[in-house]
Specification:
The chain is an alpha/beta fold and 373 residues long. The protein has a single domain (63-103, 113-368), classed as pyruvate-formate lyase- activating enzyme. The chain has 13 helices and 18 strands.
Length: 373
């Protein structure tokens, strides 16, 4: 994190939580009574996106703490549950939708863990399986260096039997998770890509080797793992590069791999690069050397630009075959794809509404010893 300005709502009372963050950031906060002060500070920059990554705003969540994933029209949704703990990210990926989603993009930390835990108590009281993630509007573990929230969430989920927490990241910020009795109710997940894509499109993220090394450490600590190949990017030679990434996951250390055991993985998701049309201008301005928005795209049913379907299917079929070579039984699923893609790439389609969520629930129930209450 490269925070150079810290704002905090004036009405927030000093607490162990906020004092800890302030101490870790190493800056005296500027107290504000109106968020417009923060937004004006960010918008005054020639590059508000970069400025937003350098500006931390400690505030409250004035909306719902827990939300259902909105999904996207016409494509199969996994019925994820979002735990809203903050917004934006300090890493800088060219394809990140958050650059165009927030106006302006501001790095916000939502103080008030009691409110979060009360909402989780209400969720757990429903006595059904929930797959809960904090990585929808931010990276789950960028906060691990500044806040005790990630480790406290792991402890909170460890005390119940029916739901799991997924912490999704491109970092290696896992040190505070080592000594926790997590009760296998937390899945640590990494977004993966080829070294070429990481170098050109994922600035300020951990290398592929570092991510996989961190995943192996978490496996040794007893955590279950997940991997997300999203976005898969099509470029000359990408198939062989993705094949090598998959080999690196499963091959043992003597062969230069991480040696992740297939039985430690609850799922692997696949999704190709897709974007709202306004994001193209953002990428062109902030990443002038990037070629990522200039592929063979068409407008999808959700009005996002997507690779031409035959290109998507061809890449998916390759990726699936590479994974099956090492882990024939691991659960694979698509993030936001249609029936044709599912059937031609995975050989089946969860037709009924909610069916994909049920498939994922079964996998995590088996892998994480959940109890169907």
């Amino acid at each position: 994190m490269k925070i150079d300005t810290l704002f905090m709502d004036r009405h927030l009372n000093s607490s162990d939580e906020t004092d800890y963050i302030i101490q870790k950031v190493g800056l005296q906060p500027e107290y504000v009574i109106d968020s417009r002060v923060v937004y004006d500070h960010v918008n005054a920059s020639e590059d508000p996106v970069t400025k937003g990554k350098q500006t931390l705003y400690i505030t409250e969540n004035h909306g719902a703490v827990i939300k259902e994933c909105p999904g996207t029209s016409h494509y199969t949704c996994c019925d994820y549950t979002i735990l809203h703990t903050g917004t934006f990210c300090t890493m800088d990926c060219s394809y990140c939708i958050l650059q165009a989603y927030f106006h302006p993009p501001v790095l916000q930390y939502f103080a008030g863990q009691k409110k979060i835990f009360n909402a989780l108590d209400d969720l757990f009281a429903q006595k059904k399986t929930f797959r809960v993630g904090t990585g929808e509007f931010t990276d789950s573990l960028i906060w691990e260096k500044l806040s005790q929230l990630p480790s406290n969430l792991v402890k909170k989920f460890a005390g119940q039997k029916s739901s799991i927490l997924e912490l999704k990241t491109k970092t290696i910020n896992i040190d505070s998770l080592k000594e926790i009795d997590h009760n296998q109710k937390t899945v640590i997940a990494w977004s993966l890509n080829t070294p070429a894509v990481i170098k050109s499109e994922e600035r300020d993220t951990a290398s592929l080797k570092a991510r996989l090394h961190a995943a192996k450490r978490c496996e040794k600590w007893g955590y279950r793992l997940a991997f997300h190949f999203d976005p898969l990017v099509i470029y000359d030679g990408c198939e062989l590069d993705y094949k090598e990434v998959i080999r690196s996951i499963f091959a043992d250390s003597a062969s230069g791999g991480a040696g992740i055991l297939p039985e430690s993985i609850v799922w692997i998701s696949l999704g190709t690069f897709r974007f709202m049309p306004p994001l193209k201008q953002v990428i062109e301005k902030r990443f002038p050397d990037s070629r990522i928005p200039y592929g063979e795209f068409i407008t999808g049913l959700d009005n996002k630009m997507r690779y031409f379907k035959p290109l998507r299917i061809a890449l998916y079929q390759k990726i699936v075959s590479y994974i099956r070579e090492y882990a024939p039984a691991v659960l694979l699923y698509f993030c936001m794809e249609d029936q044709d893609v599912w059937e031609k790439s995975l050989g089946f389609f969860p037709k009924r509404e909610g069916a994909l969520g049920e498939i994922l629930d079964r996998s995590v129930t088996e892998k994480c010893n959940l109890v169907n209450l």
